[in-house]
């Protein structure tokens, strides 16, 4: 059996703690989640937790950052693989349909927004994370428009902000079991809005 090096063991410990934190987030949310339970379910002591994360908020922010980075990587790949705007929109619809099958991370993001209202340290870190993610999404959208020789009917930042608000709002409604949430296709609503914002004269990659 191959022995893991120190760096590999630390990365493995961190990964297991993140998996456990995600499970606790699904079960209880941020406020009710327990560091003791997160560490125990991952197979480590409380000291093992604090060797990798400073606080409960720290591990959930790391979990959210991991999710946002994966989203950006997936969107970048879809843009490079698509041959037209229609093809890209279809791929985006499929991506978010799969993502919203598990609304955990979107709900986690909303929970952090509420927590940031009351906690200055969390607010600063969450703002840094969300600001960077927003800027990256805006850049991806602009790159997609350039690639397909088309343009938007509105400012790219405004389009991204509205898409984010749609996602968060509709996921919360669906998670809460509201009538509107049950009937609404979240991914379809987002891609329909994006399609409306894209000029339709030139939409193919040359």
UniProtKB/TrEMBL annotation:
InterPro entries, A to Z: Homeodomain-like_sf (IPR009057), HTH_TetR (IPR001647), Tet_transcr_reg_TetR-rel_C_sf (IPR036271)
Annotated GO MF terms: DNA binding
Pfam families named in the record: TetR_N
Highest taxon of source: Bacteria
Domain HTH tetR-type, residue spans: 11-71
Keywords: DNA-binding, Transcription, Transcription regulation
DNA-binding annotation, residue ranges on this chain: 34-53
Keyword Transcription regulation: yes
Protein name from the UniProt record: Putative transcriptional regulator, TetR family
């Amino acid at each position: 059996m191959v022995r893991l090096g120190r760096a590999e063991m630390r990365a493995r410990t961190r990964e297991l703690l993140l998996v456990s934190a995600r499970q606790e987030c699904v079960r209880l949310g941020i406020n009710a989640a327990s560091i003791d339970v997160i560490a125990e379910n991952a197979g480590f002591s409380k000291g093992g937790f604090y060797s990798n994360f400073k606080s409960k908020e720290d591990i959930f922010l790391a979990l959210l950052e991991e999710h946002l980075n994966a989203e950006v990587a997936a969107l970048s790949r879809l843009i490079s693989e698509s041959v037209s705007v229609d093809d890209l929109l279809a791929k985006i619809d499929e991506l978010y349909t799969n993502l919203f099958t598990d609304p955990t991370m979107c709900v986690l993001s909303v929970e952090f927004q509420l927590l940031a209202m009351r906690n200055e340290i969390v607010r600063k870190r969450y703002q840094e994370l969300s600001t960077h993610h927003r800027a990256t999404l805006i850049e991806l959208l602009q790159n997609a428009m350039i690639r397909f020789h088309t343009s938007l009917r509105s400012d790219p930042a405004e389009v991204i902000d509205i898409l984010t608000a749609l996602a968060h709002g509709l996921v919360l409604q669906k998670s809460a079991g509201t009538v509107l949430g049950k009937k609404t296709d979240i991914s379809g609503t987002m891609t329909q809005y994006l399609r409306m914002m894209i000029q339709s004269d030139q939409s193919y990659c040359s």
